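Repro:
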Amino acid sequence: MLGRYLSPARRPFRSLSEQEILALAISSEEDDARIYLAYADQLRQQYPASAKIFEDMAEVEHTHRNMLIELHRARFGERIPLIRREHVSGFYARKPDWLRTNQSLDQIRAEAETMEQGAYHFYTEAVKLTTDAATRKLLGDLALAEQGHEDIARMLGDRHAPEDVRVEEEATERRQFVLTYVQPGLAGLMDGSVSTLAPIFAAAFATGDTWQTFLVGLSASVGAGISMGFTEAAHDDGKLSGRGSPLKRGLASGIMTAIGGLGHALPYLIPHFWTATATAAVVVFVELWAIAYIQNRYMETPFLRAAFQVVLGGSLVLAAGILIGNG
């Protein structure tokens, strides 16, 4: 009894009549066409070739819908029952448009592949529940068509997105990833790792108290993370610069800033002072080389130059903190 109130009632697929199966197929094709058009709209500005592919795939879905409507009209008349995927148990729930925005090109392609596989399985099972010859033939043909959508998409891709275009689109996607996540995250990691070195190690050598040092490091890391996150999100809305969502950039910068500082603050949870300090020094070494690697990997900075700049700068800040703490 309780389940009736906690979750919406859904019909078992096998309980559907042949008319309801046709109606469900019609609404499903309509939904998939809308989703493909939404993908096309989302991709049109940055990936026009891929947007054209999804427009053509939506047209294929419209063709399937029209075939199903004609069969329903011939067998059951003009009135199509209202039944959708969410009314039937066992169906994969489609995400609404507002949850599909800002997906990467690879995520969109993976989602489209999942949709095609789901449609194929639906038609395969629907054939088993129908006895009318014309209906079985159409559903079987649509199952084969959905199974072949991957080939259709590949052929459309060859027509609208040849190899040079796909390479360009992948480069655009990578550049957007770097601008939205890597660049602000790297700036945050550098700020959190380097700027907190002096206060943490100064507190450590000034007090000799690992707990007090940890509190200093925690406050410095969290405060710097909040400051960097708000600064990144507020100073550029991303519309003119093309750097993407300010919220995503702010989160990337703020979180990585906090992580950069907490990396060498957490060792001071160890009660023994020199063990904690030695561990923190090792963590600092790893952080600085990680920054150099990210600069080389994503920002195309020569590794030796990146390592020299980061390690030298970090070492100077660390030395300053130790000298001040011992002063």
